[in-house]
Q: What sequence folds into this?
């Protein structure tokens, strides 16, 4: 009787433990330590607010509008280190390039001749951004994954070098050649949401969304002409591959 009871106890234990074992297979362990990755995708820039005014001959003209962009390509490199199963620090270098499309807004003239109305100028130009950021990444599941997936959130600060070129502006069928360029380096910050999927003990692939902020706000005054612009915001969507050492 005791032998039959012992056999029955073993069978019962296996039945109880089998769902736990199946779950353990899903909760696979990620490598812990140094990692490096590459990513590629698209940047979706928000319109950049631009403002200006000019005075002369008793007339004052003011304009408020938006510099609008096309979507562009983004790619980058990631180097990180897990401080513990839940927290990692990583450095991110990313390039993104996109074209200028138009300037839209409204203008007002006051003085001897008063007028106001909207404007829509075509713009031929390009912007290149080189972003260097240090991020903290929080992984709620730690080293484990759920069915191979590991979500994470994060954020960080750094700087962005922007190179902008403006070739021409078109209005009413008339194109004016500008051939202007500018370079600047500004404070940058980003917020991150992403998920990785484990392909092998060392290799993961995934997707990442980044909200990129660059402190591009500036103003200037020359010869009675005042101009300013707002901060830059972009949405970066990338696919990534990461090797865990």
A:
């Amino acid at each position: 009787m005791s032998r039959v009871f012992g056999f029955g106890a073993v069978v019962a234990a296996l039945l109880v433990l089998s769902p736990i074992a199946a779950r353990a297979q899903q909760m696979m362990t990620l490598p812990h330590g140094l990692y490096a990755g590459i990513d590629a995708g698209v940047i979706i820039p928000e319109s950049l607010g631009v403002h200006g005014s000019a005075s002369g001959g008793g007339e004052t003209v003011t304009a408020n509008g938006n510099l609008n962009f096309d979507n562009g390509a983004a790619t980058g490199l990631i180097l990180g280190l897990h401080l513990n199963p839940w927290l990692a620090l990583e450095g991110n270098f990313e390039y993104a390039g996109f074209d200028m499309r138009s300037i839209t807004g409204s203008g007002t003239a006051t003085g001897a001749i008063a007028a106001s109305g909207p404007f829509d100028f075509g713009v031929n130009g390009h912007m290149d951004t080189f972003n260097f950021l240090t991020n903290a990444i929080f992984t709620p599941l730690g080293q484990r994954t759920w069915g191979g997936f590991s979500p994470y959130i994060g954020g960080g600060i750094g700087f962005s070098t922007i190179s902008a070129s403006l070739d021409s502006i078109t209005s009413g069928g008339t194109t004016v050649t500008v051939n202007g360029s500018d370079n600047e380096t500004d404070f940058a910050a980003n917020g991150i949401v992403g998920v990785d999927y484990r392909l092998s003990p060392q290799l993961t692939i995934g997707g990442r969304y980044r909200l990129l902020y660059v402190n591009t706000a500036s103003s200037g005054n020359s010869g009675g002409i005042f101009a300013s612009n707002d901060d830059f915001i972009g949405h970066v969507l990338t696919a990534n591959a990461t090797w865990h050492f």
About this structure: Confidence is low (pLDDT under 50) at residues 1-28. The chain has one helix and twelve strands. The radius of gyration is 27 Å. The first strand starts at residue 34 and ends at 45.
